[in-house]
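Input structure tokens:
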């Protein structure tokens, strides 16, 4: 009794031995069915359809429950090995009159197939001995029409190369369109897998070549390439369509090696991704075992290396257990990307277990009807790898974007560092230039000061020598009896006193100047209104000037007014002037006036005339005091230097009985500076000079509102 199952509806059909009644079966409704069940099997007989015309000539058939290898089948009391040959026969009864198709899987390892007497498919060469038989895997489809509503399928199979012999996978049967669709879809899937894995593998190897440091990409790349190559050798075995005479032995080697190398490669991949979690020693051992088995595949024929395959499958289960342990470990330890890689690997492991079981001798040599319902395909690991590849691409994309972000951040930081460095450098350069300029200036002024000190010492010595020589002359004259007359003596003694006074003044001036310059003189500032200040000056000097026969003119304070681009001078009212205040040390300022006035008188060749003006400038912020005389004037070349210590103009000599020491204006300048003012001069030779100095004014807001 044969039990056949329809792949989609799981309907069960009761039939006679080696035949199946399909009167109830409708391909449009029930879809493709697997021709699983009891088949007639003639061991060591190569029958053709003709052989079955005269049944008396035939030996009695065995019944073999398909799909399975004929290994371990008991025929005539003997257990079969994989080697040998035989004929399968199966009949389908009560079929509709239409075109049907069957899908023949890979057969171990050569076959010829007839349907209703016509040979429709074959692979390799079926022979009764090892030397003549040629193995080949070639899944195919065949179309046919029932004759008298019946179909007879006869298949001769011979195997002397593989450990297993026979038809290990289900033959599928259905309407010819359904079978064509199934075949096309299967090829499309295989090619899609091949293309995807090939590109991914290639891409990872290129990635590795660009970054040799990271071996993860190398392992992953090689593995993907191996599995892509394997994809063309399992399932629809598309490679044989491309290269029909491709050696079965060689194809088998590639396919097996892809699996054998794959196991240690996955371990190496995990080791380079999670170096802290995968044992170095264990991975080394796994690599050695993998390499030893691969070498065996490489150097021995299929019938030999196939014998050790169960051993390697066992080893694979051990490795898988270890990998599962690693996956749990990395997830618990929360390693970077552990969840996604772990998940991908888990799917891949489950799919690989499917393939290992499907291809195991345990599955091949027995009926396992239930197990065959669960495990229906033998090339799921390629899909598993594709899913693993997908998770790996996510990790890779994450890694890339992370490194890009890091690079971006670093280059931004570098830019800022560069910018700030450049800024710092330019700042430092500027500072250096400034300090260099400052140093140069300081150096220049040191030279100038040194020169000034030399000049000053020379001038002082000169200035002191003159009165000292005079004093010496007078005293010698008296002591030597040259000056005898008492009146004359008195006259010379008075002259001596004058000279001594002159020297005392000079020494005092020097002392004052140096104390002013080193800020050792205390100023006592007081706020005083401008009108009061003018009164003090007027009271102090008007009488003196008159008695010295000097014309002294004191003008009313004023401001300049611009109206329609015409400047006019506007005198300020007494009320305004009284409301404006200056902060001064009156004693020191008197010295300024005394000095300026005395110079005006001293450097004047005619009847001296001094004029005093007060002008408010800068919107009442500053008071400019102007002292004008009708003196000899100052040569233009001397103007920049007259406020320097001990500077005397060339015209100075023109003045009779000059008692100048060149310190007066230097002292004046220091006093004005202490009042936060400035001093300058304008002069024309022969016409006179104008000395200007400023003083800051207070109560501006009050005055402005007037
Ligand atoms: P000194 O004691 O020589 O007058 P100052 O410092 O007061 O020293 O003046 C420096 C020089 O400026 C004088 O030697 C003089 O030549 C010139 N000077 C100053 N005031 C006047 C002025 N009102 N008219 C012409 N020359 C002047």
């Amino acid at each position: 009794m044969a039990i056949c199952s329809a792949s989609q509806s799981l309907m069960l059909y009761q039939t006679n031995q080696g035949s199946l009644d399909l009167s109830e079966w409708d391909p449009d409704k029930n879809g493709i069915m697997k021709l699983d069940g009891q088949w007639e099997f003639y061991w060591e007989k190569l029958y053709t359809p003709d052989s079955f015309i005269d049944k008396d000539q035939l030996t009695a058939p065995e019944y073999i429950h398909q799909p399975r290898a004929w290994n371990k089948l008991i025929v005539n009391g003997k257990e079969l090995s994989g080697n040998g040959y035989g004929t399968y026969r199966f009949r389908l009864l009560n079929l509709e009159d239409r075109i049907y198709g069957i899908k023949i899987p890979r057969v171990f390892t050569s076959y010829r197939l007839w349907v209703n007497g016509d040979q429709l498919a074959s692979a390799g060469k079926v022979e009764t001995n090892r030397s003549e038989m040629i193995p080949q895997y070639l899944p195919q489809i065949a179309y046919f029409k029932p004759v008298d509503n019946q179909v007879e399928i006869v298949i001769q199979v011979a195997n002397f190369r593989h450990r297993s012999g026979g038809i290990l996978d289900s033959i599928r049967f259905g309407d010819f369109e359904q079978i064509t669709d199934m075949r096309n879809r299967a090829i499309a899937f295989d090619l899609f897998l091949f293309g995807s894995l090939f590109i991914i593998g290639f891409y990872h190897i290129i990635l590795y070549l660009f970054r040799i440091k990271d071996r993860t990409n190398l392992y992953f790349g090689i593995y993907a390439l191996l599995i892509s190559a394997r994809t063309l050798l399992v399932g629809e075995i598309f490679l044989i369509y491309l290269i029909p005479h491709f050696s079965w032995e060689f194809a088998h080697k590639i396919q097996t090696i892809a699996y054998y190398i794959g196991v240690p490669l996955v371990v190496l991949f995990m080791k380079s991704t999670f170096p802290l979690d995968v044992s170095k020693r264990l991975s080394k051992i796994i690599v050695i075992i993998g390499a030893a088995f691969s070498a065996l595949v490489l150097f021995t024929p299929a019938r030999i290396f196939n014998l050790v395959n169960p051993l390697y499958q066992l080893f694979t289960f051990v490795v898988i257990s270890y990998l599962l342990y690693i996956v749990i470990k990395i997830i618990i330890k929360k390693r970077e990307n552990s969840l996604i890689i772990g998940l991908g690997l888990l799917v891949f492991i489950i799919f690989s277990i499917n393939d290992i079981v499907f291809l195991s001798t345990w599955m091949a040599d027995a009926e396992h009807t239930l197990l065959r319902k669960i495990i229906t395909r033998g090339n799921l690991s390629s899909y598993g790898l594709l899913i693993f590849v997908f998770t790996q691409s996510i990790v890779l994309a994450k890694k890339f974007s992370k490194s890009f972000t890091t690079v971006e951040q670093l280059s931004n930081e570098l830019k800022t560092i560069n910018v700030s460095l450049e800024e710092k450098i330019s700042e430092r350069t500027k500072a250096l230039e400034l300090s260099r300029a400052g140093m140069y200036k300081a150096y220049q002024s040191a030279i100038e000061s040194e020169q000034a000190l030399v000049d000053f010492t020379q001038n002082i010595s000169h200035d002191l020598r003159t009165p000292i020589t005079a004093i010496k002359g007078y005293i010698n004259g008296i002591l030597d009896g040259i000056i005898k007359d008492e009146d004359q003596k008195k006259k010379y003694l008075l002259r001596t006193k004058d000279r001594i006074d002159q020297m005392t003044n000079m020494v005092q001036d020097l002392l004052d100047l140096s104390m002013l310059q080193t800020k050792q003189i205390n100023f006592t500032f007081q706020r005083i209104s401008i009108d009061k200040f003018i009164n003090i000056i007027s009271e102090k000097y008007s009488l003196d000037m008159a008695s010295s026969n000097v014309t002294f003119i004191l003008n009313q304070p004023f401001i300049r007014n611009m109206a329609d681009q015409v400047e006019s001078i506007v005198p300020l009212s007494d009320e305004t002037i009284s409301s404006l205040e200056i902060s001064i040390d009156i004693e020191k300022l008197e010295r300024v006036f005394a000095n300026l006035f005395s110079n005006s008188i001293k450097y004047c060749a005619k009847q001296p005339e001094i004029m005093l003006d007060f002008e408010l400038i800068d919107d009442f912020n500053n008071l400019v005091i102007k002292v004008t005389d009708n003196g000899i004037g100052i040569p233009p070349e001397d103007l920049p230097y007259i406020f320097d210590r001990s500077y005397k103009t060339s015209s100075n000599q023109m003045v009779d009985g000059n008692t100048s020491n060149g310190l007066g204006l230097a002292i004046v300048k220091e006093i004005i500076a202490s009042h936060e003012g400035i001093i300058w001069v304008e002069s024309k030779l022969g016409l006179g000079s104008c000395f200007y100095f400023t003083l800051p004014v207070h109560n501006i807001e009050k005055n402005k509102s007037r």
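The chain has a mean pLDDT of 86. The CA atoms of residues 421 and 427 lie 9 Å apart.
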